[in-house]
Amino acid sequence: MNAIRRKDRDLIVQALSAGVVPRVGLRHIQVGRSREVEALVRDIDRIADAGSAMRFVIGEYGAGKTFFLNLVRLIALERKLVTVHADLAPDRRIHATGGQARGLYAEAVRNMATRTRPEGGALPSVVERFVTECVREAEDAGSPVERVIDRRLAPLLDMLGGHDFACVLKAYWRAHEDGDDALKAAALRWLRAEFPTKTEARQALPVRSIIDDADVYDTFKLLSGFVRIAGYAGLLVVFDELVNLYKLQSAQARNQNYEQILRMLNDVLQGNVEGLGFVLGGTPDFLLDSRRGLYSYQALQSRLAENSFATEGRIDMTGPVLRLQSLSPEDLLVLLSNIRSVFALGDPAAHIVPDEALTAFMEHCNRRIGEAYFRTPRNTIKAFVQLLAVLEQNPGTDWRELIGGIAPEPEEAEDTDADDELVDLRL
């Protein structure tokens, strides 16, 4: 393992000790799942080649969905895609009439990331890049800047909502030229779907509409076209915690969300969108439950059904559904080794515990909670990080004495609105 910056080390350790996915340094701890990663890399390359893709990443609570989705986003950024991501929640859905869909879009766009802004908040830099390139092209060609902008944005005008989308970008350019920070802020606010009413938007911008619940999917298509015009390879939209759709009490609300997912899936399968991909994370119940899950919607069940020939250990990674398999004990051993190296800043000479401590820790977990310790090992990872933290802060302590006092608990399916803290880190 390469040397690790202390800032990254502290962030990784802090996240793992709380049982959540680190926002940085995933490459330092990932193990396994090469086939799943290869499948998503092919999807990303197809998006970058003006294609489209949609994947449902399905796994049990604690099976590593959030970690996998974060890794996919980082790969997409390296391939020069723009990514947006959000977790679904009671106030954030794919389809709604009370502002919940607009809330999901707004959260996703606030989390917009590029390779130079991987932490999020990249919308201003993307728009600024577009405006700067238009100004440069106009100067080189001796043309008015507005004419260059109109020519570049022309493909968006044929799309639903494209006219106002282009007007807002032109307003941003004028604000850029005039140094009007208030107009800039208003343009970005419109693009983030933060105007609650059309009247308020009209007072600030030359538009007749806002991004509302009914426009969310079409606006993602607009956004994918715009980022490609701005010089990026495409747009990847990542939604996690789709189990919140499964939890909706209203059958009508669930079906409306599933109908929107079907529309997205049909567009992708039929090649009706370019440079746009979706990765959706959910549990097996969200997919398979014939009463409340995606399989309750017959059209989705027929499209998402698994390959009947992929049995007896055979796999098929070409379908829309990607099932995350359980963590193996061998993978967990490598993962514990990686975590030990993170603590040591990548220096083998600074390891807090020897190799035998890793196997002893795994044997202890196996005795206490059985095979669940590697299938859904969030608490196992937390316990190991806490063990290393105590050893680091109390020099001279014997790890053998501590291991007997650690009692990791079996993972349970938690009835929460956002399960992003459930992580297995198996990549």
From TrEMBL:
Composition bias (Acidic residues) maps to 409-427
Note down the stretches annotated as region Disordered.
406-427
Keywords associated with the record? ATP-binding, Nucleotide-binding
Pfam families on file? BrxC_BrxD (PF10923)
> InterPro entries in the record, alphabetically?
BrxD, P-loop_NTPase
Q: Which GO terms describe its molecular function?
A: ATP binding
- List the protein's name: ATP-binding protein
Native organism is Sphingomonas molluscorum
* Upper taxonomic lineage: Bacteria, Pseudomonadati, Pseudomonadota, Alphaproteobacteria, Sphingomonadales
